Amino acid sequence: xxxxxxxRLDPWQEHVLDGALGEREDGRWAAFEVGLVVPRQNGKSxxxxxxxxxxxxxxxEELVLYSSHDFKTSIETFLRVVSLIESxxxxxxxxxxxxxxxxxxxxxxxxxxxxxxxxxxxxxxxGFFADAILADEAFxxxxxxxxxLLPTMNTHPNPQLWLASSAVxxxxxxxxxxxxxxxxxxxAVAGGDPSLAYFEWSAPEGSVTGDVEAWAAANPALGIRxxxxxxxxxxxxxxxxxxxxxxxxxxxxxxxxxxxxAEPGVVEDASWRACLxxxxxxxxxxxxxxxxxxxxxxxxxxxxxxxxxxxxxxxxVRNGVGTSWVVDYxxxxxxxxxxxxxxxxxxxxxxxxxxxxxxxxxQVETLTAQQRAQADGGFMDAVADxxxxxxGQQSLDDALVAxxxxxxxxxxxxxxxxxxxxxxxxxxxxxxxxxAVATATAVGTRVFAL
Length: 450
Hints:
Largest sheet: 8 strands, mixed
Shape: elongated
Distance between the termini: 55 Å
Strand order of the largest sheet: 3-4-5-2-6-7-1-8
Number of strands: 16
Strand content: 15-25%
Radius of gyration: 26 Å
Helix content: 25-40%
């Protein structure tokens, strides 16, 4: 239907529609709610236009309500839909009238079916009974607007609600109403809701903003309607924090308001204290890991090894301002200590140092996002089982008992959001994971399990 009207969909748009419009055996939507989060300029609005066409001309929906944070955006979408209809004779002949009066914009078919634009006010949508609600720019969907719209669907046997948006940034005043979408995303991450279809394109948290692989992970239209040249210009002209949200889809999502205010971090304080040994010393070979804060104001180097009693030992050996010191320090550490391995998170901020490290003769093992999640999980298990020791370092203590978790595939990893500095926890977990792998490889039959 979209192609008939001259609206050519990208493969990623087709994928979303295929998933969102799946049906149960009884013919009703498998998904009552559909969430779509994708950076700007990828074609989100065109996808919603296609869903509007489906409601009017394929699905027999009596009323489709469309809303956007900025009513001007709603008007632009409305005008594109009208233009596509009027340029397609097979569709235009089914139209009874196009309403263009301010506040009453919409399209009505001869069958009585309608699509109507609604503003986001406390009274928007009241008095209507919609089959489908398409809420664009849901990063600013106020609670009162959602409360006004959702009851309009209660009397319909097969309704569907769409929340489409770029990522939420709760520090941005324009995103102060991002809690509705944040709640939906939390449910999607948690899983277990059979009536929710959620689609998100975003780069791994902590990605290097200039990494083309991160651009591709977050922008499904890269190479189709977005060029590398355009992304490069945007990267050079945009603040890092803005680029992360708007171009990489790395959101700063609103937390769960129902969670306890004093919710502990990923590692229980008592468990971490039980692993404290101020006199802990490692013996034998070490592995080295480094991490850089996203704002690049400081970097950190950590080591992992084994003690005489075969327990693991982790330690932060350098925590310095900026990054200019890192390559020389690590190169010197390699010459002195001959570590089994030097490791970096492949998609983390420290990955930008890889060329300089190679130039200094330092061979580096890079871990994927999935391996990073395994490392963090293994470290948490080691702490919980008291199989690791530390000497008591404030920066590491703070990182482990305060940092939240974020989903990474089917696992979880330490999260940089919320202003928590997790460079120490990232570095020690990577070092410990790589020491276990390197030692198992070197020894052969002996495996040091985390």
